[in-house]
Amino acid sequence: MDSSYSSSTTKPIYRGTQIVWYILGIIEVLLAFRFVLKLLGANPEAGFSNFIYTVSYIFAGGFLNVFRVTKVEGSVFEWTTLLAMLVYWLIAWGIVKIFFMSKTVSTPEAAAKLDKEEK
Q1: For residue 67, is it within any domain?
Q2: Do residues 20 and 100 lie in contact, with contact meaning Cβ atoms separated by under 8 Å?
Q3: Cβ–Cβ contacts within 10 Å for residue 117, how many?
Q4: Which range marks the domain in which residue 99 is found?
Q5: How many structural domains is the chain composed of?
Q6: pLDDT for 10-29, tens place per residue?
Q7: Which of helix, strand or coil describes residue 113?
Q8: DSSP secondary structure string, 71-101?
């Protein structure tokens, strides 16, 4: 059996990465709904639109003044929501990489990876 799969840290790392990707998926879906609803000019007073705008504001709020909003006849192209989606994806990717760095590695496996990085 390959030593990289028999480590006692493998299962917790796997579960941790699953949780990170799941949370990212929820955030990305909320932001995607926000982007599409704004783009299609959805009524912000409608129940579903209001819910999505309210919940997604937590994740989009910090980005809303980064770019100008592009408006065309009631539709809003919210570049900032796309930026938020990219930033959250990069954060999740970085967290997953940190999880993998904590995985137990044998000395021969570490030496092989270091040799590969030198090239």
Answers
A1: yes
A2: no
A3: 7
A4: 10-118
A5: 1
A6: 788 889 999 999 999 999 99
A7: helix
A8: EETTEEE-HHHHHHHHHHHHHHHHHHHHHHH
Question: Distance (Å, rounded) from C-alpha 57 to C-alpha 25?
Answer: 16
Residue 55's nearest CA partner among 73, 33, 38, 76 is: 33
Residues of the chain with pLDDT under 50: 1-4
Distance CA(12)–CA(111), nearest Å, equals: 24
14's tokens: 């796997």
Domain presence at residue 2:
no
Find where tokens 């570490």 sit. 110
For residue 103, what are its two tokens?
């995985």
CB-based contact 109:100 (threshold 8 Å) = no
Among the listed residues 88, 95, 35, the one whose alpha carbon sits nearest the alpha carbon of residue 62? 88
Whether the model clears a pTM of 0.85, i.e. scores above it, the answer is no
Residue 88 has a pLDDT of: 98
| Three-point CA angle 100, 6, 109, nearest 5° | 60
